[in-house]
């Protein structure tokens, strides 16, 4: 049976890495009817909106999407399509596994953690106002409902995946009310899961500990902003943004995308690493029940990375996106 999946190629390196991933999924024999929709600048040209209703309808109907990165202008222009999409579809949980991959050069070995980021509120609510000239107030929204929901998601994820410890990350010494509520919610949920260890760390110390001894972390539970920042830090521990996948999950639908952005500095050069989006697509295949092809693809990627002869530039190699994709496809066919 063909799966119908929404495909949002994205901006910058998005079209290159998503084309590579589509090729690899097809090579593994998964039959997908891709419904392609654009977001951001590319969508405005066609529909007048950065987040067209047709895209939202497509994800809602298919319940699954694979998404490339979408550019958001800095300090001006339209609001983030990524934040808008997560809010519109109530994709409240952002799940980002951070682990070493065979053959990928990195500062650390033995890193195996999962970042669980609240995806709908915090300072990303986008409520900013210039109150008087020269004074801007940005509202940090933290609700008990969203905090408990993401904490419960993190604990359930731990139980379902044999993970042992949740570390809630906060700055409740300063933001006593907002981060205080996030922490109280996490502590309350922790009581429902006596078999999972629970501890807490202040975000600045957590960052230091992450770069000193990342192996001590298992599941990290964070509000939106810290989750965003710590995700890129986590990527840096295991080889960079080219290899870290992610999923935005809600009760009804799921959008799979890498942690990285549109990388305008290397867009169009056929040098981007498609591994991050590919591993996101493997999370997607498992989500829709295609475990065997996901395992086959993971095996092929692992062998190509471990062999080391066809690595992209970000991993110290010289292979192009196309050459790397060819190598992965070749490995799939060889087994
Ligand atoms: P970025 O993640 O696009 O790039 C940061 C650095 O990592 C760059 O040097 C880039 O070349 C490198 N990099 C990223 N992905 C790579 C890959 N797959 N292979 C090889 N190298 C890779 O972050 P930046 O430059 O801060 O943001 C660029 C744009 O992306 C901004 O408009 C931002 O808003 C957007 N963005 C979108 C996201 C999304 O759609 N989910 C997530 C993060 C940023
Ligand atoms: Mg980010």
TrEMBL record:
Q: Which organism is it from?
A: Luteitalea pratensis
Entry's Gene Ontology molecular function annotations:
isocitrate dehydrogenase (NAD+) activity; isocitrate dehydrogenase (NADP+) activity; magnesium ion binding; NAD binding
The enzyme's E.C. designation: 1.1.1.42
Q: Where in this chain does the record put each Isopropylmalate dehydrogenase-like domain?
A: 4-328
Pfam families for this protein: Iso_dh
Q: Which PANTHER family match?
A: DECARBOXYLATING DEHYDROGENASES-ISOCITRATE, ISOPROPYLMALATE, TARTRATE, ISOCITRATE DEHYDROGENASE [NAD] SUBUNIT ALPHA, MITOCHONDRIAL
Protein name in the entry = Isocitrate dehydrogenase [NADP]
Q: Name one GO biological process term.
A: isocitrate metabolic process
What family is reported?
Belongs to the isocitrate and isopropylmalate dehydrogenases family.
């Amino acid at each position: 049976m063909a799966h119908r999946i929404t495909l949002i190629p994205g901006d910058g390196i998005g079209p290159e890495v998503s084309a590579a991933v589509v090729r690899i999924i097809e090579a593994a024999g998964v039959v997908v009817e891709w419904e392609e929709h654009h977001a951001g600048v590319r969508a405005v040209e066609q529909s007048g909106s950065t987040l067209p209703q047709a895209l939202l309808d497509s994800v809602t109907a298919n319940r699954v999407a694979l998404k490339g990165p979408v550019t958001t202008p800095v300090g001006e222009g339209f609001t983030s399509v990524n934040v808008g999409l997560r809010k519109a579809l109530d994709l409240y949980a952002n799940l980002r596994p951070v682990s070493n991959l065979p053959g990928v050069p990195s500062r650390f070995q033995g890193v195996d953690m999962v970042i669980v980021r609240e995806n709908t509120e915090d300072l990303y609510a986008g409520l900013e106002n210039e109150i008087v000239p020269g004074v801007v107030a940005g509202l940090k929204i933290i609700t008990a409902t969203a905090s408990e929901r993401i904490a419960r998601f993190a604990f359930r994820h731990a139980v379902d995946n044999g993970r042992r410890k949740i570390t809630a990350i906060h700055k409740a010494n300063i933001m006593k009310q907002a981060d205080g509520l996030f922490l109280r919610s996490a502590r309350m949920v922790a009581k429902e899961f006596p078999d999972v260890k629970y501890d807490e760390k202040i975000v600045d110390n957590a960052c230091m500990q992450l770069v000193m001894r990342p192996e001590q972390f298992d599941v990290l539970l964070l509000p939106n902003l810290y989750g965003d920042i710590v995700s890129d830090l986590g990527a840096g521990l295991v080889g960079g943004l080219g290899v870290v996948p992610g999923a935005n999950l809600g009760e009804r639908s799921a959008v799979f995308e890498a942690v990285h952005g549109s990388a305008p500095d290397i867009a169009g050069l056929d040098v981007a690493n498609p591994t991050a989006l590919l591993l996101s697509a493997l999370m997607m295949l498992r989500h829709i029940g295609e475990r065997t092809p996901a395992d086959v693809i993971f095996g092929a990627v692992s062998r190509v990375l471990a062999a080391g002869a066809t690595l992209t530039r970000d991993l110290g190699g010289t292979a192009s996106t196309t050459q790397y994709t060819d190598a992965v496809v070749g490995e799939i066919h060889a087994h």
